[in-house]
Design brief:
With about 150 residues, the chain is an all-alpha fold. The protein has a domain at about 60-130. The chain is about 70% helix and about 0% strand. It has helices at about 5-15, 30-90, 100-125, 130-135. About 0% of the residues are buried.
């Protein structure tokens, strides 16, 4: 008999000889355990709902802030274009040398594209739809028809 087998036998004999007394403290009460598990489940559910609510409120505040900022950006851009066009037409009165047509077109086009692209990117990020609406905004559970169904 090897030392390893001898050790295992001694361990088995010791575990058989140890007696754990059963009292009211060692016997679990199933109803109590079920109640505790249900309470923990309700607590976790409430905590999750509170976290979802806090996220929604933070998202709303962020949407309001960035919507105002985007509106201001567009207003400043429109004002800039208005001033630029005004100077092009009436610049001689204040000794402003008008820009050439190609420079004016390039300037207005590039600033317009940049402002609109920024507006679209920010608005799509802030006001994104949940995935269920993004797939099919009319009916998220509408069946898909294939050519074979017809």
């Amino acid at each position: 008999m090897s030392a390893d087998e001898a050790f295992r036998r001694q361990l088995e004999e010791l575990s058989r000889s140890i007696v754990i007394p059963q009292s009211s403290a060692t016997v679990s009460n199933d109803d109590e355990a079920k109640r505790v598990v249900e309470d923990e489940g309700r607590f976790l559910s409430n905590a999750l709902q509170a976290e979802i609510l806090a996220d929604s409120q933070a998202a709303r505040a962020q949407r309001e802030t960035y919507a105002r900022r985007i509106f201001r950006l567009v207003c400043v851009w429109i004002f800039f274009i208005f001033i630029l066009l005004f100077l092009q037409g009436f610049g001689d009165l204040i000794h402003y040398k008008p820009l050439s047509d190609s420079v004016l077109i390039t300037l207005i086009t590039s600033t317009t594209v940049n402002v609109i692209a920024t507006l679209i990117i920010v608005l799509k990020y802030i006001f994104k739809l949940p995935e269920s609406h993004a797939r099919n905004p009319i009916s998220p559970k509408a069946p898909k028809h294939t050519a074979q169904d017809r």
